[in-house]
Design goal:
single chain, mainly alpha, three-stranded mixed sheet, 7 helices, 3 strands, about 5% strand, elongated
Length: about 240
Amino acid sequence: MGFFAMWDPLYWVVMLATLILSGGASMMVKGAFNRYSKVRASSGVTGAEAAQVMLNKAGISDVQIQRVSGFLSDHYDPRAKVVRLSPEVHDGRSLASLGVACHEVGHAIQHAKKYTPLVWRNAVVPMAGFGSNIGFVLIIISMLLGGASNFFGTSVGLLGLGLFGTIFLFQVINLPVEFDASFRAKRMLPQLGLISGPSEASGVAKVLNAAAMTYVAGAVAALLNLLYWAHRLGLLGGRR
């Protein structure tokens, strides 16, 4: 078994597929956001104002809204209890701005309600950070030991794959977290009068659905990498 994966044509196929997935998803998000950032919401409120209305409706008073630099750098920080919005989202009055802002508030609501998949995701985060590094090291050690051709190589390889697989586990658990946050935004925006009519609802949905594809792409890419290393070690497909 060759030591360097870079000499394996299959490695480049996996890398190319990963780049296409992540690049395509990123282009979809930017395209949808740029398109609907030009469509003003009929309510005329900013993303920050919409986020505050949604927080108030949910009865959440201990979460702040902050303006941060960066393009689409929007996120919810559960430790600081802060919804951080990029300038375009914080100050924008477009369908894209309201959709993204309220998606992040969706995470704040999940946190307040102890939404189960979010609790699981937060528990997996440190595991994924540790597993991505140590797991890869163990995979390389397993390859040096001969992979699945002997007991020690197989044992170390399985342990490495298990740790490396926590990345995939995180990505899978993250999907319902992100989908639910978008669902909350799509549902509450019209209920609160922040958008009106099927046309505005459709615009918000297209922005949030495009963003969701980045998480799907991340999960697929993580699975492809996991399967590649299982194959490389001889644990999948009978490779030696």
